[in-house]
Specification:
heterodimer; A: 5-stranded parallel β-sheet; 9 helices; B: alpha+beta; two-stranded antiparallel sheet
Chain lengths: 425, 149
Amino acid sequence: MNYVIIGNSVAAVGAIRGIRSVDGEGNITVISRERHIAYGRPLISYLLGGLITEKRMAYLPEDFYSKHRVNLLLNAEVVGVDTGSGVVHLAAGDTISYDRLLIATGGDPFVPPIEGLAGKERVFTFTTWDDAAALKGISHDIDRVVVIGGGLIGLKAAEGLHLLGKRIAVVELADRVLSSAFDRSAGRIVAKKMKANGIDVLTEETVVRVEGEGGEITGVTLKSGDFVPCDTVIVAIGVRPAAGFLTGSTIEVNRGIVVDDTMETSARGIFAAGDVAEAREFFSGNKNPLPIWPDAYIQGDVAGVSMAGGAKSYSGGLAMNSIEFFKVSTISMGITNPTDPDSFEVLTYQDTENYQYRKIVIEDNFLVGAVLVGSVERAGILAGLIREKIDVSPFKERLLAHDFGFIHLPREIRNTLFAPMGKVA
Amino acid sequence: MKRIYTLEDVCIGCHLCEVACITEHSQSKNPIKAFLHDAERQISRCTVEEWDGGIVSLSTTCRHCDEPDCLRACISGAIQKNDAGVVRIDTEQCVGCWSCVMACPYGAIQRNLAKKKANKCDLCPDRKSPACVDACPNRALIYQEGSQK
């Protein structure tokens, strides 16, 4: 059996382990357009800010590829998939044939057309090790930066540059930063911390023009007419599934590559996982791209096991993020901004002064979402309650307590988790 | 693999498991030094929870899951499962992003805020059985072969 995996990040790693848990014999080939072995992609902001060295970027133990007997093709871009003859085409002209194919190409940063942007030298996106290295390489010469987009990527880029002593303005279209993963209160707390660190946070704003002669940037003009001086622009509006190379193939691509619960695409024998895939969401069952690290691993694992003929099924994607901004810990999971307030019950605790916030979202006695800022201790217990669909009505007031734990849950749950054989002794 | 199981009926809430854990992972391996004099005070990898003034109590700790959510969430690769099944964290590699804290449904990962490193049970690699189990005066902690769930 020839397994071919396009992409070499966390979904690919989950898939390699998944395949090898079922099939110790088949050939695994991994093709990556990047020049690095698998690395901790979210660590690029730590690398930029000088919090870690390049040595720490490696995501896997040194012997991973040899131990799992993986042929690794780096610096190789796949430009097409021929589903009829079962081959992938590389940019260099070679072809590689597969019996089972996994597409785990992740996302491409989205750069909208902005007047004056084209032809400017210091315009960066921030999703790869090389992006971080390029920025770091010229950082001695950077003075002021405008970050377009106040989402997770934009804020982490801003934080990394702030650690290098740069002057930064973040321009965000929505009325707050982190609008997709966090709610208004959490966004406000993070923005407050950023401002306290000297970062300008400009919400309900957008860059209409990048100013400067030739390749040089002198600043940006905003929708409001304000001019923000800068020499470097980072575009961090979002990522889109990197599925462009499938144009013209028979594989169904909506926003991402559409997959079923075994991660198989519309084409038999071809699977997709991670940021490029469009899989079932946990609550609604709707299919959506979900660019979430742990979920990419899980999708990769399901795909790998399925490709090798094992039985494993995806339980649905649950959005969750744990990010620290300027030493304020934040964790969000599930539904954090319920659209219809009548069908949800929302409990909150807030102490903005001390950067503490806790929000619990309940629907029909089930926990469906949480936002924690500051004290994030044991947040995963909440994730477990969401995934296992536990009735939280007997102890829901307790969910807001910082010391919430298993002791507040029904005894049967504790025993199932910690003494599964009943009276062990 | 061998795992630690908790019998809440016989737990007396004495917290000796936490004392033993802190001592075992200290530099001196002496409880007084570990708590008072060592340069760095360890954080217990097991957590005793109590209710109603201690009428109900139990010690919770890592299950060393077959498919660890912490490992899957870890962005730096610091968390790995070794061939014996023990889920371990490489403290040097950890960047303190708390993704494992977010993901672990057992609440079994602690935050060392001073060092900005995650902290978890390693099943005491230098011992025949974990220090918490050996320290439990009423055998509320059992170390034996068994499944995760």
